[in-house]
Amino acid sequence: MIFGIALWVWIDANVNMKGIYFGHWIPGIISTIGLILINALSLDVLNDDGFSSYDSTTRNARIFCLIITMLLILGGLISSVWIMIVEFQNKNNAAPGTALIVENVLITLSALIMKFGRKNDEF
């Protein structure tokens, strides 16, 4: 639901705007890819159980992938702030830049809630 609101905010701010280029879409795309990848990894490998079926190579690879996906999400958020500062700071209408930041904050929030907010033993 938060992800849908993020996309709605971005589309709503840019429906009638001219001067929105593909480069303005890239932070949202990067954050969305990070959202998909972070939810594809299981956190069970991070537990240090001695009876785990994962070997150290698998564990290290998953930790590396988790770090890369967190960097993707953070990179999307940082690039949206950068685009807001560079592209929309001196313009009369800063709504697309603000919507870009709000979109990426909501995508980041939804990724973190989906990954760390749910429990596997609930069902």
TrEMBL record:
It comes from the Eukaryota. GO terms for cellular component: membrane. The chain crosses the membrane at residues 20-42, 63-85, 97-117. Keywords: Membrane, Transmembrane, Transmembrane helix. Pfam families: UPF0220. InterPro entries: UPF0220. It is found in: Membrane. Its main location: membrane. It is a multi-pass membrane protein. Belongs to the UPF0220 family. This is UPF0220 domain-containing protein. The lineage of its organism: Eukaryota, Fungi, Fungi incertae sedis, Cryptomycota, Cryptomycota incertae sedis.
